[in-house]
Amino acid sequence: MIQQVENPALEIHDLTVSYDKKPVLWGVDLTIPKGALCGIIGPNGAGKSTLIKSIMDLIPLNSGYVKLFDQELDDVRKKISYVPQRESVDWDFPASVLDVVLMGRYAQLGLFKRPRKADRDAALSALEMVGMDKYAKRQIAQLSGGQQQRVFLARALTQNADIYFLDEPFAGVDAATEKAIIQILKNLSSEGKTIVVVHHDLQSVETYFNWVILLNLRLVASGPTSDVFTPQLLEETYGGKLTLLSEVGELVKKGGFHAREKQ
Amino acid sequence: METLVEFFTFEYPNIKYVVFGTILLSISSAVVGCFTFIKKKSLVGDVVSHAVLPGICISFLASGSKDPFLLIIGAFISGWISIVVMDAIIRNTKIKEDAATGLALSVFFGVGILLMTYIQHSGNASQSGLDTFLFGKAAALVGVDLLAFSIIAVIVLIVVFLFYKEFKLVSFDPQFAKVIGLPIRRLEIVLTSITVLAVVTGIQAVGVVLMAAMLITPAAAARFWTNRLSRMLVIASFFGAFAGISGAFISYSTPSMPTGPWMVMILSIIALFSFFFAPGKGIVVNQWRRFKIQRQLLEENLLKAFFKIGEGNNDYFKEIEANDLRLARAFSSGQLNKGLRKLNANGYVERVGSAWRLSKEGHDKGKRITRLHRLWELYLTKYLRIAPDHVHEDADTIEHVITPELESRLEQLLDYPTADPHQSTIPSRH
Ligand SMILES: Nc1ncnc2c1ncn2[C@@H]1O[C@H](COP(=O)(O)OP(=O)(O)O)[C@@H](O)[C@H]1O
Ligand SMILES: [Mg+2]
Questions:
Q1: Edge-to-edge, what's the strand order for the sheet holding B349-352?
Q2: pTM for the full model?
Q3: Is the predicted pLDDT of residue A262 greater than 50, yes or no?
Q4: Can you give the pLDDT at residue B216?
Q5: Residue to probe by mutation, ligand 1, list A24, A166, A198, A200, most atoms within 8 Å of CB
Q6: Domain extent at residue B61
Q7: Is the CB of B38 less than 8 angstroms away from the CB of A94?
Q8: Tell me, what DSSP letter sits at residue A115?
Q9: In this prediction, what percent of chain B has a pLDDT beyond 90?
């Protein structure tokens, strides 16, 4: 069940990605409509983070292409916001909450320029949105997991993007933070922004998202939640049938050839 | 003293140059070192500083001169190659980062020593002084050398100033930096280049072996004093400059003392001092704080014991034998001795023969602690639904941290109660 849409916010065409010659995503082909609040669902190691990273051009593709608003990534960077997994950075870094949030403005500022008053204002109001304005001066190491996630979201909000990619924003955060974040995402979505969220918890999928991508090394399904979030498709995503695919992946790696020849 | 005056009035122009040079070199290595340090690439400094040696030798062999600019170019190139080789090893083999680092370091340094030995035995007349690179010789920082190294140090500082914001983001979250469109490859190249340059110039002062310390120690020490990168750069520069001046002074006042090793020595002392005494992170400061809290707990617990016994006696100001305080709470005799002495010194209790009696202030304080203890117990049972026989331990800690504002809010929330869950009276505030 893979539903394609006209005039999509995100188009992924025939994408194959490998680490160390071992393919972890096979021939992913999907589109997401503008304004969707979309969840990427799949078991651990399914390649969810890899999918986001390849959309963001953080890892090389074996084959296929990605388009955002029908354009190349480089032409629309200013419209894109990325919230990496919280563990991807060292929170012991010598920076305050405000420092980190201000980083969201660096692209707008350009090289050499220092953040201006307006950037500080933007950062502070983003912090207010996520309920962290009182912590602006706090060293980031002194934050709880949930607060760190809020800071990352605030940094993304300062970018005023049109499409947001969040990698596991609910992992290891408290219930209050999860609620606050999903509310912000829903608001953004109702303003017409497109939101793509890597998500873990099957319980909340139906209340959170109106579009769902089921992924496990390959694309199992992509479409409106009511069509895709079915026991049958979930069984296909989480069931044991895919061990074959990952075993073949190992073989490809050992053989030292690429899953697909570069085009 | 005389030497000190002589030194700082720069009576001899040479001193001025040496001091100026060492300060500049120290600051530029300290600033660049901050980025090396926060990127957790401390070993890279070590590799580069050893890897510049073959470059210096080859450059000398090829040109036959000791022109500092030529030597710097050679050093720069071989320093860079070592980094590229190291990255290639990590990326393309199963060798881990630490092993790759060690490999690159020893191979490059080995080749460097080999070339150096060859040059020394070749009887080339102008070779003397090349080994200052091996061990450093800040006092040799004069004339064209000083000019060359100062220019580079200034370039390094300007680049950091210009790219501060980008370097910060690339160090903290390179993936995000890439996504928002920063040219991270080029930024990394610039950062690596100035690291190599800082190392090349710093070597002039302290030599190959101690260079890594010049790079990393000021940053590591500064990190103890601040949580902000901008301040860290300033503090590290200050430490570097201080070490530079001190090293130059020591070797000036005692000519047999080398400048470079003393600079590193002083930096190490600063780092050790920071490790023990920096506010918030220093070990001694933390121990001291813990000790003070322990003492506060002991004193307040003693006053609470006085108050409770007084409550039972219906007379708060009756003399109490020290040992009787143990009825209210298990104090060790050491604690009793120390605590009572301290309370006495502070005017909370007074001595009456072999016994002790509360003062008015001691009574008030004991009453407040008891009150907070009972209020908190009540709060726990009422709002957190914890069984009354389980709340005592919690309240025992919380009673010491509740502020007067919290106290008022607690009272209000509990609707000005008079009895705790064990039906003991909650003493009134006044
Ligand atoms: N940097 C990497 N190098 C090698 N393998 C990786 C790397 N990152 C992820 N993988 C592998 O790729 C697969 C997919 O990982 P990932 O995209 O992180 O999954 P998910 O986010 O769905 O849990 C996993 O098998 C993981 O082990
Ligand atoms: Mg992941």
A1: B320-321, B355-358, B349-352
A2: 0.82
A3: no
A4: 94
A5: A24
A6: 2-278
A7: yes
A8: P
A9: 33
